[in-house]
Amino acid sequence: MLRDSKIFVAGHRGLVGSAILRRLRSEGHEQIITSTRADLDLRDQAQVRAFFREVRPEFIFLAAAKVGGILANSRYPADFIRDNLLIQTNVIDAAYGNGCKKLLFLGSSCIYPKHAPQPIKEEYLLTGPLETSNHAYAVAKIAGIEMVKSYRRQYGWSGVCLQPTNLYGPGDNFDLQSSHVLPALMCKLHEGKVSGADQVTVWGSGMPRREFLHADDLAEAALFAMNHYDDDEILNVGVGTECTIRELAELLSRTVGYRGDLHFDTTKPDGTPRKLLDVSRINAAGWRARISLEEGVRSTYAWYLENVAKPAAP
Ligand code: GDP
Fold first, then answer.
1. pLDDT value of residue 11
2. Does residue 78 form part of some domain?
3. Among positive and negative, which fits the CA dihedral 188, 19, 114, 145?
4. Would you say the CB of residue 35 lies under 6 angstroms from ligand 1?
5. CATH assignment at residue 98
6. Which residue from 57, 119, 143, 189 lies 20 to 30 Å from 299 (Cα-Cα)?
7. Ligand 1, atom nearest to 271 Cα
8. CA 109 to chain CA centroid, nearest Å
9. 183 alpha carbon to ligand 1 midpoint, in Å?
10. pLDDT for 311
């Protein structure tokens, strides 16, 4: 990408898209295009085609998606598969047809089989059954990857696919019904501290293991891939280390300053037992995550206090 290349960030208000936008701006890109959902509904093929015919972006970061935590995915599978299939199909096809030089598609670590050997290598894709709680979302993302690869194979078009692990950071979703574990627990523990609660509830057994990547690290990886990676093979993006949900809750308690107990509600689902990505392929290509979980959680909590937390009652 050159400084004056026309770059479209789809989903610029989300956790990932906003991080990519910050990064592009900080690197001095001058022609960054964004569009809000009110102006351009990416699920609507006619609108997407008209937008691409007019704007003709050269580079596209496809960070627009319907995303959510374990509860939202289990409750609304139809919304997850429909919206994601529509968004990605419309954008990829219109991009290809309107002079786009390269598109970056974001998948997810949940595309891999539930019982994949750990750490998960890219080649484990489609080697076993998926986790049930986010099956519909994962199948949509797998279709997106296959579409990008097929356009490369059939048309020689340059699309690349990154598979990020669980993400967090400023601009995350802190709504307890639809969020992922890290922002959800940050919010619950903060509210527990403010109200002086004796205990805060953590869903599941606390035993599942997850890997957490800061959105700013992912944004850096996305620009790295756009500039330096052009291959059919998908690329995992993660930090290469994991922790249990209990350990995460303890770290968050320390960060937030919550001193009460943790109650594990085992009527809630655990989801997949482990999800640690093998990041040797992207490391070998020249990129590595930089933000530690402690540091990332600290800065995200500062952002949360500034932007989300309700002011304490007088
Ligand atoms: P997943 O990585 O796709 O399973 O999605 P989540 O981030 O939603 O959940 C990760 C793990 O954290 C699961 O085992 C959840 O049961 C557990 N968890 C514990 N407390 C919470 C919570 O308050 N919200 C969410 N979303 N997950 C929680």
1. 96
2. yes
3. positive
4. no
5. 3.40.50.720
6. 119
7. 4
8. 9
9. 10
10. 62
Q: How many residues does this entry show for the chain?
A: 314
Residue 128 belongs to a domain: yes
Any domain includes 313:
no
pLDDT at 312: 54
Residues catalogued as catalytic:
137
Ligand 1 pocket check for 268: Cβ under 6 Å: yes
Q: For ligand 1, is residue 167 a contact (CB within 6 Å)?
A: no
Place of tokens 């809750």: 249
**What total number of domains does the chain contain?**
1
Which segments of the chain have a pLDDT < 70? Answer: 310-314
Residues in CB range of 57: below 8 A, 6 or more apart: 6, 7, 8, 33, 95, 100
Structural domain that includes position 152: 6-307
State if pTM tops 0.90.
yes
- Residue whose CA is at the smallest distance from ligand 1 atom 28: 181
Does 187 contact ligand 1 (Cβ within 6 A)?
no
- 262 CA to middle of ligand 1, Å? 15
Q: Is residue 312 part of a domain?
A: no
C-alpha dist (Å) from residue 64 to 29, 60, 90, 161, 167? 20, 11, 12, 14, 15
pLDDT at 70: 86
pLDDT tens by residue, 185-231: 999 999 999 999 999 999 999 999 999 999 999 999 999 999 999 99
